[in-house]
C-alpha cells in the first residue's frame, strides 16, 4: 500500500485540478480515506445488505454531473481473486436511469500489476489504456453484481488477461442498484458514466489520462451494456472519447430473444430479464405482477424467486419451461399491453437511439441459440447504412456459449489495436467489412 500512496502523492501533483460540485469531497480526500481503511476492511457484505451501496445522504449528489465520483473504497481482496491486479477500488458515481432520473452505479477499477513501475520520474512506464469490461451477469439479483461477485473469482479470466497487457480495467455493475437486467438505457448510461468516473480518478493511480485511449468490451449481457453505451454516447456523453467497442453474442431485440429461448434450455433468463427491465418501468412491473398466477404449478412465487438467484441458478430452475404459462393471459400479457410495449421501445431494441461514432467489432455465431443471427445482421446493416465503421465476423462454428471462447482472441487482438493506436494500419477504418469466418476452438454442445 505504501507504494500506492507514493504513487498517489507523486501523481496528485501532476494531475490537473478537477472541478466538482462544491458539496462533494475532493477525489484526493476520497482516495486517501479509502486507503486509510485498507487493513480494517472485512469481507464486504452483499450489496443488498451493505450500506456503502447507497448514494451519499450528506450531499446534493443529484445536482452533480453524470460520471461524478461520489465514493471510493479500497477492495482489498480483489487482487487475490483476479490475477495480474496490483490493487482494486470500488467507485460509486452519479449516473442516470432509463427514465432519465438521477441515479448512481458502482464500478470496480483494477490497476494492472505492471503499474508498480510507474512513477512521476518514469511516466513512460505508466499505463495509458483503459478497458471498460462489461461482464454478462444476466440476473435481476443485485447480489450477483460483479463488484461483489468478483470476490469469489472472475468467470472467464478476461480481466486478468487484460491486466496482463498493462491496461487499467473497469468493471461496472451496469444493471445498477435495481439489478435492471436487459434495460438498455440504464446499462448504457452506467457504462459511459463508469468510464467518466474512472477517468476522473485514475490519474491518481498513474494512468496517463491525457493520452489514455478507452475501449469497451462485452459478450452477451455485457455486449448489451456496451452496445447501448455506443448508441447513447452521441447524445449522453458527447465529449467522452471512446476509441472502439467490441461486441460479442449480441442480443439486439429483447422480445425476439424471449420468444426464441422460451421452452428451451435457457428459458430461465426470461423471468430475470422481465423483472430486470421492468424494474426501470413501474407501470409495466405492476402490470406483470398483477398478471402472474397466484397458485398452481406455474405460480408467482416461483417466478419471483429469480430475484434471489444467479443466472446459472435460474437457468437450472426453469429449464425447458414455457414461461408464458406463469401469466393469466399467457404470451399476450407480456407482449401486447401498452405499458409493456412502451417499456420495450425505451429499453429493449438496439439501433434506435444513435449510431456508434467509434470503430466497432461485432462477432457472433451464426448458430447462436440465444439470439437469432438475423437480428444482429439487421442491426449491423442498419448502422452500416448510416456510415458506421464495423468489422462483423459471422462464425460458422459453435453456438452462443462457444463464441465467447472462440471470439476471445480475435476480440483481444482488435482491442489491442484500438488501445495502442495501430487500428488504422491493421483494419479498415472506413465503412463495414462483413465476413463469414470459421473459428472452432471449443466443442459445440447445443443447449437444446
Ligand atoms: C493485494 O494488495 C495488497 C495491498 O493492497 C498487498 O498487500 C497484497 O500483497 C496484494 N496481494 C496480492 C496477491 O498481490
Ligand atoms: C423485435 O422482434 C420481434 C419478434 O421477432 C419483432 O416482431 C419486432 O418487429 C422486432 N422489433 C424491432 C424494433 O426490431
Ligand atoms: C455468409 O454466409 C451466409 C449464410 O449464413 C450467406 O448467405 C452469405 O452470403 C455469406 N456472406 C459472405 C460475405 O460470404
Automatic annotation (TrEMBL):
InterPro entries: AB_hydrolase_fold, Lipase_secreted. Coiled coil: none annotated. GO terms for molecular function: triacylglycerol lipase activity. The keyword Transcription does not apply. GO terms for biological process: lipid catabolic process. Residues 1-21 form the signal peptide. It holds the Pfam family LIP. Keywords: Hydrolase, Signal. PANTHER family: LIP-DOMAIN-CONTAINING PROTEIN-RELATED, PTHR34853. This is Secretory lipase-domain-containing protein. It comes from Diplogelasinospora grovesii.
Amino acid at each position: 500500500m505504501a507504494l500506492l500512496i507514493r504513487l498517489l502523492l507523486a501523481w496528485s501533483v501532476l494531475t490537473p485540478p478537477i472541478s466538482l460540485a462544491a458539496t462533494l469531497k475532493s477525489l484526493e480526500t476520497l482516495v486517501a480515506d479509502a486507503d486509510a481503511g485498507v487493513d480494517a476492511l472485512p469481507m464486504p457484505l452483499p450489496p443488498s445488505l451493505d450500506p456503502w451501496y447507497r448514494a451519499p445522504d450528506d450531499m446534493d449528489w443529484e445536482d452533480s454531473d453524470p460520471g461524478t465520483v461520489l465514493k471510493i473504497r479500497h477492495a482489498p481482496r480483489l487482487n487475490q481473486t483476479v490475477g495480474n491486479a496490483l490493487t482494486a477500488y470500488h467507485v460509486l458515481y452519479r449516473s442516470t436511469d432509463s427514465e432519465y432520473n438521477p441515479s448512481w452505479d458502482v464500478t470496480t477499477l483494477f490497476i494492472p500489476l505492471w503499474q508498480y513501475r510507474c512513477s512521476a520520474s518514469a511516466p513512460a512506464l505508466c499505463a495509458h489504456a483503459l478497458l471498460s469490461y462489461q461482464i454478462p451477469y444476466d440476473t435481476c439479483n443485485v447480489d450477483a453484481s460483479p463488484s461483489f461477485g468478483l470476490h469469489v473469482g472472475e468467470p472467464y479470466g478476461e480481466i486478468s488477461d487484460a491486466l496482463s497487457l498493462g491496461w487499467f480495467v473497469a468493471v461496472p455493475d451496469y444493471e445498477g442498484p435495481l439489478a435492471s437486467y436487459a434495460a438498455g438505457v440504464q446499462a448504457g448510461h452506467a457504462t459511459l458514466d463508469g468510464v467518466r468516473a474512472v477517468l476522473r480518478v485514475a490519474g491518481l493511480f498513474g494512468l496517463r489520462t491525457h493520452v489514455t485511449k478507452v475501449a469497451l468490451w462485452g459478450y452477451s449481457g455485457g455486449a448489451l451494456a456496451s452496445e447501448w453505451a455506443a448508441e447513447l454516447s452521441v447524445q449522453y456523453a458527447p465529449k467522452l472519447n471512446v476509441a472502439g467497442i467490441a461486441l460479442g453474442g449480441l442480443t439486439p431485440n429483447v422480445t425476439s430473444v424471449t420468444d426464441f429461448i422460451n421452452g428451451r434450455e435457457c428459458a430461465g433468463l426470461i423471468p430475470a430479464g422481465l423483472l430486470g427491465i421492468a424494474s426501470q418501468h413501474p407501470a409495466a412491473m405492476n402490470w406483470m405482477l398483477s398478471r402472474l398466477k397466484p397458485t398452481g404449478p406455474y405460480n408467482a412465487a416461483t417466478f419471483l424467486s429469480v430475484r434471489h438467484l444467479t443466472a446459472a441458478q435460474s437457468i437450472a430452475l426453469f429449464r425447458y419451461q414455457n414461461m408464458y404459462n406463469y401469466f393469466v393471459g399467457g404470451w399476450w400479457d407480456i407482449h401486447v399491453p401498452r405499458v409493456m410495449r412502451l417499456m420495450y421501445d425505451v429499453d429493449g431494441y438496439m439501433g434506435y437511439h444513435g449510431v456508434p461514432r467509434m470503430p466497432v467489432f461485432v462477432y457472433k455465431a451464426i448458430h447462436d441459440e440465444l439470439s437469432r443471427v438475423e437480428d444482429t445482421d439487421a442491426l449491423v446493416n442498419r448502422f452500416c447504412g448510416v456510415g458506421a465503421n464495423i468489422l462483423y465476423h459471422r462464425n460458422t462454428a459453435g453456438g452462443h456459449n462457444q463464441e465467447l471462447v472462440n471470439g476471445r482472441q480475435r476480440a483481444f487482438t482488435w482491442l489491442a489495436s484500438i488501445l495502442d493506436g495501430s487500428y488504422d494500419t491493421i483494419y479498415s477504418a472506413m465503412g463495414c467489412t462483413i465476413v463469414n469466418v470459421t473459428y472452432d476452438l471449443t466443442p459445440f454442445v447445443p443447449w437444446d
